[in-house]
Design a protein that fits this description.
- Strand 5 and strand 6 form a beta hairpin.
- Helix 2 crosses helix 3.
- By secondary structure, this protein is α/β, with parallel strands linked by helices.
- Bound molecules: adenosine monophosphate (AMP).
- Adenosine monophosphate binds next to helix 2 and helix 3.
């Protein structure tokens, strides 16, 4: 099964993609996580991506497309994947379609998480993540410990979760990514659900769609 989790920043794409990936035993590719890893390892990719990310801008398409195709290729023996954070604009979506068609494959379902701006800001303000393993926590969900329960690393706020950058990320989402709702609706593979509520509640909604 090939699944994309779509939605604005803070909609819970990463959290849900991870859960779906565990449930279905499929690899989870998150361009944001791959880029953050590259930044923390100070690779050439990380050096290029850093300035775009800290402004909340999109990293240029050719870089992202190479990155995601490489990841999919690495796991091509698997029966699908879960994507989160990719595609982010029509050019990326078209490239993904071309790439899959070339291998005689196609996307099965796009899960679009709908959520209002107020909830997004609330969630992002309380978001903490582990810089080592990437696990995400939210003080809003009652998580106040400051170390990762997986690996004991001190939790941090993402640099691009500052209020100013979040506003720009929302603007970029509306200008470039939101149109993908229409793009996938026209292909008949879009399913929109509410992204409000607890991670468990949202996950139940997603499972109902996938089953
Ligand atoms: P995310 O973790 O998905 O919120 O992504 C964090 C940041 O990484 C974004 O604000 C962008 O700067 C960059 N990024 C992630 N995915 C993409 C993508 N598909 N295209 C361009 N930039 C991306």
């Amino acid at each position: 099964m090939r699944i994309i989790i779509l939605g604005p920043p803070g909609a819970g794409k990463g959290t849900q993609a991870k859960r779906v990936s565990n449930r279905l035993g499929l690899p989870h590719f998150s361009t944001g996580s791959l880029l953050r890893k590259a930044v923390s390892n100070n690779t050439l990719l990380g050096k290029i991506a850093k300035s775009y990310m800290s402004e909340g801008e999109l990293v240029p398409n050719p870089i992202i497309i190479d990155l995601i195709e490489e990841e999919i290729e690495k796991h091509k023996d698997k029966e699908g994947f879960i994507l989160d954070g990719f595609p982010r604009n029509v050019a990326q979506a078209q490239k993904l379609d071309e790439y899959l068609e070339h291998g005689g494959k196609q996307l099965d379902i796009i899960v679009n998480l709908e959520i209002d701006e107020e909830t997004i800001i609330e969630r992002i303000k309380g978001r903490l993540s582990c810089p080592k393993c990437g696990k995400v926590y939210n003080t809003k969900n009652g998580y106040y410990e400051r170390v990762c329960e997986n690996c004991g690393t001190k939790l941090e706020q993402r640099e691009d979760d500052s209020e100013e950058t979040v506003r720009n990320r929302m603007k970029v989402y509306l200008e470039e990514t939101f149109i993908l709702v229409d793009y996938y609706q026209k292909k008949g593979i879009l399913q929109s659900i509410s992204g409000r509520g607890s991670p468990d509640e949202v996950f139940e909604r997603i499972l109902a769609l996938i089953d």
